Amino acid sequence: MITRLNSIEFDAALDDLAEILHACVHAGASIGFILPFTMEDARRYWLQTVQTGLKSGELDVFVVHDNGRIQGTVQLIPAAMPNQPHRADVAKLLVHPNARRRGFGRALMEALFIRTKEVRRTMLVLDTRSTDPSRLLYQGLGFQIAGEIPNYCRNPFELSLEPTTYMYKDLSG
Ligand SMILES: CC(C)(COP(=O)(O)OP(=O)(O)OC[C@H]1O[C@@H](n2cnc3c(N)ncnc32)[C@H](O)[C@@H]1OP(=O)(O)O)[C@@H](O)C(=O)NCCC(=O)NCCS
After folding, report:
1. Atom 17 in ligand 1: which residue has the minimum CA distance?
2. What pLDDT digit, counting tens, does each position of 103-128 carry?
3. Which homologous superfamily does the CATH classification assign to the domain defined by 2-170?
C-alpha cells in the first residue's frame, strides 16, 4: 500500500525512514551520502531537510507499507522558481535492500505520477548514477535520458568519482 504522508504520519514514520536511508547508503546507493554514515546522520537528513519541506508544503513524501513496516519511499519536489510552474523533481527513491525486486520502486513512482498531475506539474526531472539499475526502472517508466555528467559525485565507499545521468519525463501529452 502506498501513502502520501502528512506531517504527523511523517513523525511516526521517522524510524523506518532513517533505517531505509541508512541501509541503502550502506548497501552502496549513490544518494548524496558517503561512509561513515550513522543512523543519527540518517535521522538528521529526514528531520532537517525533509520534515521542514513537508511542513512548509514544498514537497510530498510517499511511502510503501508491507508487513507493518515502511519498505520504501520517494519525494516529489515541485520547482519553486516562477519560470518553472510546470516542473518538479523526483528525489530519494529508496527501497530497503531486503525488499527489492518486488515492485515497490515502480509502485512508488506510479503514485508520484498521479500526484504530479494533481498538482498540475507536467515535467519531471531526476538524476541517477549512470551505472545503477534505477536507470532501467526509470526508462521502463518512460523517462528519457537528457545526458550524462562525468565525475559528478563521489562513490560512497571510496575516493573515485562516478558519472550521473539526468533524465526527464514529460507528462503533458
Ligand atoms: C532503484 C530501487 C529504488 C528499485 O527499487 P525496487 O523496488 O527493487 O524496484 P522494482 O522491484 O519496482 O523494479 C522495477 C523494475 O526496475 C528494474 N530494476 C530494478 N532493480 C533492478 C536491478 N537490480 N537490476 C536490473 N533491473 C532492475 C527492472 O526492470 C524492474 O522490473 P522487473 O522486476 O519486472 O524486472 C532500489 O534498487 C534502490 O532503493 N536502490 C538504491 C537507491 C537508489 O539508487 N535510488 C535511486 C536514486 S536516483
Report:
1. 137
2. 999 999 999 999 999 999 999 999 99
3. Gcn5-related N-acetyltransferase (GNAT) (3.40.630.30)
